[in-house]
Amino acid sequence: MDKIILFNYFYRDSIIHKMEARIKILSMLIISITISVAANTLSYTILSALIIFYFFLSKLPFKLILKSIKIFFPLIFIIIIFNSFNIVNSDESILPFKVILSFDNFTQALKIVWRFVMIISLSTIITSSTSVNTFKNVVRSFLSLIPFVPEARVATIVNMTFILIPTIFNKYNIITDALLSRCIGAKKNPIRRLVYTSTPLLNEVIRNAEDIGAAMESRLFNENATAFIEKIKIADYIIFTLSIFICLASIAIYFFL
Fold first, then answer.
1. Which pLDDT score, from 0 to 100, does residue 51 have?
2. 140-148 — which CB contacts under 8 Å span 24+ positions?
3. How much is the pLDDT for 27?
4. Helices in 144-228 by DSSP H: which ranges?
5. Which residues of 102-121 are buried (b: 16+ CB within 10 A; e: fewer)?
6. pTM
7. Predicted confidence (pLDDT) per residue in 138-168, tens digit
8. Rounded distance between C-alpha atoms, residue 43 and residue 213, angstroms
9. What's the average model confidence in pLDDT over 82-87?
10. Chain centroid, CA 140 distance in Å
């Protein structure tokens, strides 16, 4: 498994990195919703161009997107296979049914994969251009609008999740490499491989969680500390307006053309 790219922050001196985090995440969320609503080729082409434009603004290396997508290759393959064939009744074969490749279903499968890739690309841009602490402050800011929700505690949980997920994947890589070097990872029995991998991985996760808890305690962590929120700049309004305009245009194309 390649090193996970999602949830890892990569600093760049770019417009996307300098965007106010609430505006950035809200813009990407609106684009994601539009991708799910406006499901036709022309709308997807316009939204893909917008995502590519934001990616170039972020100055992130293109290999980040490729590595993020590569992780989901098995899932993409399954989506294409299971959505490309029709199962119909048959009296001519030994089996009571036959499997037929449908061009229309194959086209729909490609659209599903297209939508999936766009969402992965958006997620990569967001997580690679926004620090974990900034995510925490944004979640806290949004949840503060909802009454009776402990926004500081929930934001801390989200923060810890963003920290631990890439750590878990990286530890998994280290463990699997160590098993392969000892010829244990080459065992064909999946249950034995799972046992050999899961036990040290669980041990590492618990140890990391304890280390993080001890570090927070030693620094007198207070979940109710004042969160720093950046000011919204003119460039942020321009990018947000552009996102809204293109999303509305894509939806209009889908429903009226």
1. 94
2. 140/227, 141/22, 141/227, 141/229, 142/22
3. 92
4. 151-181, 190-218
5. eeebeeebeeebbbbbbbbb
6. 0.77
7. 888 888 888 888 888 888 888 888 777 777 8
8. 46
9. 80
10. 20
Alpha helices by DSSP H, listed for 72-189, are 73-84, 103-129, 132-143, 151-181
Q: What is the rounded CA–CA span in Å between residue 257 and residue 16?
A: 32
Whether 28 and 242 have beta carbons less than 8 Å apart is answered as no
Cα dihedral across residues 116, 119, 121, 123: positive or negative: negative
For residue 9, give the 3-state DSSP assignment: coil
Rg value, the chain, Cα: 23
> Could you give the CA distance from residue 139 to residue 65 in angstroms, rounded to a whole number?
25
- Can you read off the two tokens belonging to residue 55? 């990616």
Cα–Cα dist 193/198, whole Å: 8
Confidence band for 1, pLDDT divided at 50, 70 and 90: very low
DSSP class per residue in 12-69: --SHHHHS-HHHHHHHHHHHHHHHHH--SHHHHHHHHHHHHHHHHHHT--HHHHHHHH
Q: What is the residue-averaged pLDDT of the chain? A: 83
What mean pLDDT is predicted for residues 17-26?
A: 90
Looking at the DSSP bridge assignments, the partners of residue 86 are: 100
Residue 87 exposure: Cα atoms within 13 Å on the Cβ side: 6
Q: How far is CA 149 from CA 25, 141, 152, 185, in A?
A: 21, 12, 9, 45
